[in-house]
Amino acid sequence: MEILSFVGPAGRPVDAHGSVGVTALALFRGEAVAVTVLRVAAGGEVGRHCAPVDQLLMVTEGRGVVQSGDGDWESVSAGQMVMWRAGEEHTTSAVDDLTAVVVEIAATPPRGG
């Protein structure tokens, strides 16, 4: 067993797609799945981009807003999740400091049993 922590400022700065105030800490990278802790400082933003694979954003702390395509901005906060499908254009902005666990899934597992 190994106990890991994702508390604190660890992670690499992310500026891709014009992102501002974003850091990412990779927890796991596999052939079909990647898990990353994403932090977005209050007022920061993950720049608009197309999801290369299915992406699940699980907000663990803070508040923000998300947008898909040209749709309306939707509020998200700790305890909520957002799923973007591969090819879906999207962006995330933080109202308060926001921490999320992002799971990227190259192949969606079958539903049910």
From TrEMBL:
Which range is the signal sequence, renumbered to this chain? none
An example of a Pfam family matching this protein is Cupin_2
Q: Any idea which GO molecular function terms this record carries?
A: dioxygenase activity
Report the residue ranges that make up the Cupin type-2 domain in this protein. Answer: 38-105
Cite the entry's keywords alphabetically: Dioxygenase, Oxidoreductase
Q: Which domain of life is it from?
A: Bacteria
Instruction: State what protein this is by name.
Output: Quercetin dioxygenase-like cupin family protein
Q: Which species does this protein come from? A: Actinoplanes digitatis
Q: What is the lineage of its organism?
A: Bacteria, Bacillati, Actinomycetota, Actinomycetes, Micromonosporales
